Amino acid sequence: MKMKKTETFTFDFIDFQAFSKEKQRDPFYNERRLRVKRKLGQIGKELQKELPKEHSLVHRTSLSHPYLTNQYQVRSLWLYFSRSPNEKKKLKEILGVDIGKDSDSHYIQTLLVLEVSEKGLALGLKIHSQAWWDGENLKRKCSHVQHLQTFVELLNSLKGFALTNHNWKREYLSGEITQASLQNFFHYYTPGEHWLQITQKYTAQEVLEGKFKIYEWVKKGFFQLLPLYQFIIWKEENNFVFS
What we know:
Layout (H helix, E strand, L loop, with lengths): L12 H5 L12 H21 L6 E5 L14 E8 L1 H11 L14 E8 L2 E8 L4 H10 L3 H12 L5 E4 L6 E2 L5 H10 L7 E8 H5 L5 H19 L11
Antiparallel strand pairs: 1-2, 2-3, 3-4, 4-7, 5-6, 5-7
């Protein structure tokens, strides 16, 4: 039986080692990182066909070579999905020209992300630290008890994910989250300053051992995160920021 194209998507030892500390700034390893970028691009292309069009998501990959925008250091590579140009236009119309300039970026948004680093693979949803419109929308929405409870239920419906605030060590594990623990999270989470992250991880060793099919894992994870994405992002029918 012929293998599906998606079953061939994998990462090997060389891919993970391209992001080791001594290689992150070295342009000699640009070709290796480009190899990873192309793999991520293939995964993104296939996912783009399968993700429901009503979510208006488009995919991109991050820079594979040291440059100004990554502080000349490639710690990891991302495949990420974010708002379509049309959805960003709607957002900018609300924000206005001056404060809406950040919303032009496809990166400064709420993102569905697959990340490759020396440690392994991480899959999740992230609200960029500068995407205050989405972070503030979520925080204000969850100040209402009924919406807070919905967010609790959405997070606990996930398996093997953890909610974190920026680079803080504390993890709020799916299946164990309560209204009280989320209220504690939002007490410290500052939109426009902190990243909000909901992630699931596999170590490089687990990937190399072939314990799971990468594409199916990513697809399943992204589909699980879509209800959270829709719950979080600002849009006209989900507006808790502008009145």
